[in-house]
Amino acid sequence: MKKNELICCRLKRLPKSMLVEAARTATRINPVNHPRMDQLAGLMRGFRATPQRIAVMTTSYWGSAGVKLTVGFLDDAPADLRKRILLHMNAWNKDANIQFVPGNTDPQVRISRVGGKDGGYWSYVGTEILHIPKGKATMNLEEFTMDTLESEFHRVVRHETGHTLGFPHEHMRRALVDKIDRKKAIAYFKRMDGWSEQETIDQVLTPIEESAIRGTIADPKSIMCYQIPGSITKNGKPIVGGLDIDESDYRFTGQIYPKKAAAKKKK
Ligand SMILES: [Zn+2]
To answer: Structure pTM?
Structure first.
């Protein structure tokens, strides 16, 4: 990695062959993940509810009782770095019932810091991490060390943790989408993620104003905004997206994983 080159998040999704199984897991853990049939019918004319199509629409949030996940590192990350990463992961718990705790035996969240083919910054989304084989990473923070800028811990660790919590990428405003080179974007996501042209159009090239996708944070400054590498923008500059968890991120997270529900349960 070149020093001045900003690394953008690459959302990791399970292979398509695992989607149906993963959707079943998601619905078992949290029935709310299942798409509402009336919404599906309204969204797509002539919708046929095949397991594949339902799976695509299924979200991967953990249950409303809250999130408590164990975190381990796949390399010899020093103790101070582990602590610092955990601290930023737990920044999400300000208004929500979320806990990331260190775990040495079979940790649920597994962090690697590799470069190369599997490098960059990425995380699988929500309950999908349960389908990653033990010993394999669910999140990668390429070359993160104690020397990494504090602002990168905010921008990157918190963003990737958002994915682990089940948040997808938020759509961008039209002004930002217009900066993307369509052809290059379609080629890029095909190469990197195996997406069809239509998937890239739906996921990346459709501005938030026009997107029919609901249930995520409708906030262009959200930390979960798409990050677009300079190689596929018209002016060659990356689109960085939100730099930290903002108020609406916190609000939305508090609705998905409310603190009150947890308090009630304990009584
Ligand atoms: Zn991301």
So the answer is: 0.88
Report CA(172)–ligand 1 centroid distance (Å): 13
pLDDT in tens, 132-149: 999 999 999 999 999 999
Q: How far is the CA of 38 from the centre of ligand 1 (A)?
A: 29
Going from the Cα of 6 to the center of ligand 1, the distance in angstroms, rounded, reads: 14
CATH class of 16-169+245-262: alpha beta
56-66 per-position pLDDT tens digit: 788 999 998 99
Taking the centre of ligand 1 as the mean of its atom positions, its distance from the CA of residue 124, in whole angstroms, is: 9
The alpha carbon of 32 and the centre of ligand 1 are apart by a number of angstroms equal to 22
Give the Å distance between the CA of 267 and the centre of ligand 1: 37
Cβ–Cβ < 8 Å for 72, 111: yes
How far does residue 226's CA lie from ligand 1's centre (Å)? 6
